[in-house]
Every structure is written in structure tokens, then in C-alpha cells.
Fold this protein.
Amino acid sequence: MYYRITNVSFKPESRDAIFAQADNVRDQLAAIAGLSALHTVETGEGSMMLVAVYDSQANAEEGAKVAQQVLGTMAAHFTAMPTQSVGPVVWSL
């Protein structure tokens, strides 16, 4: 398992528009090879964390290209560039 965690800061008034756009690209995201889950966690007003779960590093790297395109369509709603952390699962319960 390989994870990509993306932290996003956005204009609070854009929340609904961001989720509407995410719904519009749901099929595109679901078609990403090796993507087994994508979760959005609202961590506070104007902030969220996206957790993408892949079967391999290679698929995560390819999936990142699609994710960047999708996030690019939402850039007008962001207050800062999204930041990413990536890595393999090293322990789980």
C-alpha cells in the first residue's frame, strides 16, 4: 500500500463548489489505475486533507498526474498551494 496525503487550504465560501467539482470528476478519479480509496477529511474551516490509497508507488506517481490536473481546476478556490506527503505503509493495525 502506498499513500499520498494532500493538505489543501481553501476559501470557506468555496466549500460547496469544491465538492461539486469533485463530484463532476468522480468517474475520472475512479478510473485511476491502482487507486483503492480516496478520502477527504475536513480538518477545519477552510482546510481539508485528501488521503489517496494506492496499490503501488508506480501507480501513485501516475495517479498524481491526474490529481494535479483535477486540483488545478479548483485553484481559484485555494488560498495556498496544496502540499503533499507520500510514502508506503510501514505499520498498520
In short: The chain has a mean pLDDT of 95. The longest strand covers residues 35-44. The beta strands are 2-9, 35-44, 47-54, 83-88. The helical segments are 15-24, 26-30, 57-73.
